[in-house]
Amino acid sequence: MQNIKSKVLLAEDDLSLGYVIKDNLVDAGYEVVLCPDGQAAIDKFSKDEFDICLLDIMMPNKDGFAVARKIRQQSDMIPILFLTAKSLEEDKVKGFETGADDFIVKPFSMQELLLRMEVFLRRTRKMHSEKTVSFIIGRLQFSYTDLKLSIGKNIFNLTQKEADLLKFLCEHPNRILKREEVLLNVWGKDDYFLGRSMDVFITKLRKYFKIDPAVNLETIHGVGFRFNAAVN
User: Which CATH class is domain 7-129?
Assistant: First the structure.
């Protein structure tokens, strides 16, 4: 499935399931580190480099949400996928707010897991290979490559998802963007729970834009958004 041997951090307290997932990933060409609980996953991540993280939610010592928050403190780019028996709305919303990229609900097929992993790994490799990408938004300077939005001495450090969303808006200024269009291009699929996550990021971007009144991210009710700004 892949030419580059990507390294996977797998946190799963059900070790019989963990070893099944690990063996299948190794057969597919991945290098896998299996951790039996959340604290072990945090310790491993702080000492080693990984390309993608697969986290169970319900784990002893630290749950998957706590692990995701710790990972996001160190890296905004690494994909985080939750492997969970839960499909509750509040868990998904909380997961996306802590930095998750996607959910895989148990029981799942290994083919589904491998396909979802490859989607995010391709996206990450593409971002690493891209040349410097930057935009002028009104009086704001946006460096997508450096994940920074600035105006004068005011510098905002963006998360990767904030930067991905802002980049898409900059590429399509002053026109109506449907919600599903934004979701498909930034998150990779149109999903109710991802839509809730997108609304959180829209609110975050609006807080940054308050510093320049000429930049406005407008909600078109029942349709989507319009990014009203002079973009160069």
Answer: alpha beta
pLDDT at 1 over 60: no
CA-nearest of 27, 28, 37 to 9 is: 37
How would CATH label the architecture of 134-228? Orthogonal Bundle (1.10)
Angle at 90 between CA 56 and CA 176, to 5 degrees: 110
Contact 37, 15 (CB under 8 A): no
15 phi and psi angles, rounded to 5 deg: -65, -30
Bond prior to 60 in cis (omega within 30° of 0): no
Task: For the sheet with 224-228, list strands across it.
Answer: 176-178, 224-228, 216-220
> Is residue 12 helix, strand or coil?
coil
Per-residue pLDDT reduced to its tens digit, 87-125:
677 777 788 888 888 888 888 889 889 988 988 888 777
Which sequence spans correspond to the domains of the chain?
Answer: 7-129, 134-228
